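User:
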Amino acid sequence: MKIIDTLKNVWKITELKDRIILTLGLLLVYRFGAQVVLPGIDANQLGGLADGTDGGILGILNMFTGGAFANASVFALGIMPYISASIVVQLMGIAIPYLQKLQKEGASGQKKITQITRWLTIIICLFQAPGYLASLQPAFGIPSSAFLLGTGPQFYISSVIILVTGCIFAMWLGEKITDKGIGNGISLLIMVGIIATLPSSFIQNAASRLDGGGNGGLMMILIELVVWFVIILASIMLVMAVRKIAVQYARRTASGGYEKNVFGGNRQFLPLKLNASGVMPIIFAQAIMFVPSLIGKSMGSSSEVGQWMQSQFNDPFGLWYNVLFAFLIIVFTYFYTAITVPTNKMADDLKRSGGFIPGIRPGTETSEYLDKIMSQITLPGSIFLALIAVFPAIIVKIMGVQGGWALFFGGTSLLIMVGVAIDTMQQINSYLLNKHYDGLMKTGKNRKAVA
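Assistant: Predicted structure:
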């Protein structure tokens, strides 16, 4: 089979094999750390924490940390503080001239931005760690007997230091995977955390189907798997879909001028992604979906509007929660696409390289044309993204799927898994193509001597 031959070829390339082994080893270290409970906490009495993070926003957070959040692990904060810091730095780059200058300085500027992101990650951890520890007992119902050394200053100070160190260590693992391994390290850590909770979620849902209580049995499990594969295919289409803009390159002549309408180079189109913003709109929308519930809570229990807002926006599978969620995703998709797709820079790069879009003048006209095309394709892309994001709620209402298993039918978790898998496969494929290219050109380290 072709797939087996491809796997054999992967193993033949020494550098690629070493990178894959290193990546798997570091991911294994991360998964091991997710099972190590904070010192001074009895792991046998964490049932309340596991039940409290079984669904909703906390369930999603627990999924991203691979269950470390519910385990009160040394990696309980996961890699999310680093993700938050990266988003903040990226957004500040729009308004702060210093960051804009760093973005234009190439590798040296990116190195400084990375350092700023690291320090901001530590600051975020210093706020999140005490909040997490403070919520263990009253919010999640963990008994006081679970805290073997009590909950005094000694416990808090040591646990905060461990949680911050755990997050920094996870960040270091991600960066090492990116530098020395294969794929994007930070994204792989999140994906592995998501996949780690998949088997238990599926088994719990399957057990409820097979318990003889009229829940559909084996047939419903098969239908769910079919629907799951269909939504995975739809997510792949969303991630891979591009609008190709035809581009021509004028070739320089011997006299120093340009010969028009002659293709020079291999690419004759400019790919504009249907979903250029990735999962960021979902993350942004998810981050502020707790606001309506807080507003309702601030109105008091005596207010009918307040009670309605609390009941509707505390349920991530509720109707009005998902209507607002979908609307925010569409809005944030436009916003994030506008700040991350530099149509002006794309037009300038085309002009400098002697490229032009047929029928469109280089420069400002090209920039306006690209901006118009991006606006046109962002609308269907944002609607498609919103539908995938709210599909877990749809599958819960229609098929009665359990909340934990339903989260894998769409939303951030599924898009992250699909996006990271595609990116990693593309990197592996590039190694294979480079090896094949070296073989054709009879160059490279592994080239055999020609007699």
